[in-house]
Automatic annotation (TrEMBL):
Keyword Metal-binding listed: yes
Keywords, in A-Z order: Metal-binding
The name this protein goes by in its record: DDE Tnp4 domain-containing protein
GO molecular function, one term: metal ion binding
DDE Tnp4 domain span: 321-490
Tree of life domain: Eukaryota
Cofactor needs: a divalent metal cation
Keyword DNA-binding: no
InterPro entries hit by this protein: HARBI1_dom
Amino acid sequence: MWLIVSIINDIIKTRNTRAFGELCSKMYHRLVGYVTVPLLKCLMHDKNMPPKSNYFKCVLCSKCTKPKERATVNKDITKYLRRKFLIEAKDGDIICNKCRHIFRKERDHKVLPCVKTSKSSSQTTATFSPPSVSLKIPSTSKSHAYCCICKKPGPKLIVISPDVRTATYVDNNILIPSGNRCCPNHICDGHLNDDALCRIKTTDESFVNRTYLLEIMNKMRKKIRESASRRLNFDDSNLSEPDYITMTGLSKINFSEVCSTLKSSVRRAFNSVRQAFMSEFVPANLGFQHISREEVIQKHTRPLAQSMFGGIASNNAILVLDGTYIYVDKSNNFHFQRRSYSTHKGRPLVKPMIVCTTTGYYVSVLGPYLADYRNNDASILTHMLKTNVEEIRDWVNEEDIFVLDRGFRDAIPLLEDLGIQAEMPRFLKKGDKQFSTEDANMSRLVTKIRWIVESSNARIKTWKYLSHTLPTNQIPFIGDFVRIVCALSNKYAQPLSQCRDVESDQLEAAKMIHLSKMSNTLKEHVETENLLKKKLIWKVASECDFENFPRLDDQELRNITCGVYQMKLASSYIQEYTDEESDIFVHREDSNLLRIKIQSRHTSSKKHQLWIRYNESYIDSWYCLCRAGARVVGACSHVAAVLWYLGKELYKDKSVSYGVRNWGEHVFRCKCAA
């Protein structure tokens, strides 16, 4: 009613004919709008009425589309939806323009790389082929946004790797298109797990292109080659009884019986190989006759050793000798049992004598020898020289140098008669508890060179056969096995000690020789002032007392110790030492003089005392009461540990472990024990 009244009022106010016509047209449209809209709203609630055009959904993405944004699904789109998304489209279904654009893009641009070379250019261009090959092989739908197995959307999806896709095809005859993604829990150890294989949905037919076919063929070829390269291992417990029957025609028990009867033949084969090594390979790479004395001097002698013992311009051969141990089982032959028992090691063994150069090159391996007191290192060296083993006396010249340990002391007179210079650590004089500064310095010069033979012996034990206890029936072949290992090391292994440059070796040797001629001024001060017995002149140190202690890096610490062995022990010493804060003392009158007590690594009831004098720039001097603590050519392990802690580790986070774990926490001990 109010609509009609408003129209009449507008007509009365209008007197112009033209304006009257326009007003009538306007009123007509207003009336139609006010009547039609409520009517359509009522009709929309009728379920029997057809849906409005705006509510047509895309068959692929389910998005409501407008008339201008959709199209009817044709045959090509129907095949595409069935192959890729496992969607069966019906007649009259629509697809939005966005999904149709994706279809057209894949149809027009999905191609196979094919190399074509033009005559005008050496560059190659890639052409492609559509997925036109139809295979009667089940295949999953192609999906990157959804899991191809459980259809869950992303984002926590992973791309299925080529190896997993190949394994799925080989094991289950299912093709997975490249680029498909799935949930991470569907893959286990490079394969789809059982749950994924049960849930996976596939089509009966696969459409692939040449790229995918070539990829599958290359993967299959790779797996076949890998399988062919694997050797059968009948010692593997995973082989079942049917496996033995399939591969050998014998049961597992029968196969073991056959192997036991063939052991003698296998043993003969091993003997043939060993004899071939000893007749051809070993003589060419080991022994005094395989290498000349001049070649040893020129190629296998470090300038550090040459400068330290022989002089820069000397032409002396330097050899390092020591015996190594090969452990054997206890023999039932009582005579051999007594002669092979080592009182030093407390077990039966035999001793090959190793002769190497200062770079770790094996010159010769002699023996093996028995292990009783009659066959100590000095006796073995005496036997070698007197019997002229491998014509050793013709090989060495006068003034050549043998670097030895203290076990060769009884052979020194013979070496002096032959004109051979022997270098070995000094002996502690009777009644003394500590080496003098001179003796400790000279011993350090020897150990700086002699360590190479210990590393050479350790290299032999890296061959597991020689690191284990051998049965007595292998004793006749131990010497051959050790020689074969040393010959292989000479031929193929890198030198154990290499010189970075001649000048650095000569400078280090000159520094150590200069230090060996100096006295320990701090030792003299401690003994003169009787600092060992005076207690009141020291106070417990605090962190502020170390503010002027110089910061030391790894290179500076190595310069002080003249090596790395002491630094390797530092963390083990400090791990036990850090809880004993009261063991660091500062002199009340000289704040740059420290006194430290550090626990012995061997004796629980013993602590070593040491003193360190320093200034803000460098470490001035040190002295320790241990046997080698008076030397100035390097520092003992106790001094090195304290310098490492105060100069480097003290400024780090104290909660950080030093990398040495106390395994005693997991072992019970008696309550009465300390």
